[in-house]
Amino acid sequence: MGKVYGYIRILSEGQDVDSELITLHEMQVMDRDIFIDGQEDGESSFRQYQKLLKKLRDKDLLYMKSLDMLGDDYGEIGRQWRTLTKEKKVDVVVLDMPLVDTRRGKIQCGTLVGDVVLSMLEYAADMEWASRKQRQKVGIERAKSRGVQFGRPESPWSENFEMVYQMWRRKEIKGREAAKLCNISSTLFYKRAGMLREMEEKGTGLK
Question: Nearest-CA neighbor of 92 among 73, 66, 71?
Fold first, then answer.
């Protein structure tokens, strides 16, 4: 086995860091090998964690209190777990979850526990993303039912648009000049020109 490290990330003001330090000392982790990230401007920092990653080597052992030390959502936690167990090839022990100890159940192609945890985190991340998208979709549908408009509203059709459009159709002016005369972007002019052409084909027009 390689070196033994400990990692603590302060997630809230009331977090009992002293208790976590005592536990890490009981696990024979030296003070110099304990990395602690605090909060900056109300948000958790990962500076010390990045320093820890640079020190970790194959067969090292890392203790942490809980999985949420690694990130703020399942996606990020999963990515960091993969970095630790697959790329760095270190063993990880999560103190709040006794079963999450990658030293258990070693198999030839890797760590059974590590792979199971990674699969669970990736599944949870997918479910979290799907749930977020569903909530977003429901929220948008409800807002639309209340008449809420999404996106940047387009400028109204100018009174001279049809006249300018006909001049453009007769190739008397170019599209860029036509857009300027209507006080809109070239993209919007061409879009509305296409709409007006469809109206003409249907026998309608601007009302």
Answer: 66
Q: Which parts of the chain fold into alpha helices (H)? A: 17-26, 47-55, 74-82, 112-145, 161-169, 175-182, 186-201
Distance, in Å, from the CA atom of 86 to the CA atom of 109, rounded to the nearest integer, reads: 11
pLDDT digits (tens, 9 = 90+) for 32-67: 999 999 876 556 678 899 999 999 999 999 999 988
Quick one: which of 33, 45, 134, 124 has its CA closest to 79? 124
CA separation for the pair 67, 54 (Å, rounded): 20
Paired strand residues for 101: 93
Model confidence at 108: pLDDT above 60: no
Pull the structure tokens for residue 35.
Answer: 């990395």
112-145 vs 74-82: helix axis angle to the nearest 10? Answer: 160
Instruction: Check whether 22 has a pLDDT greater than 90.
Output: yes
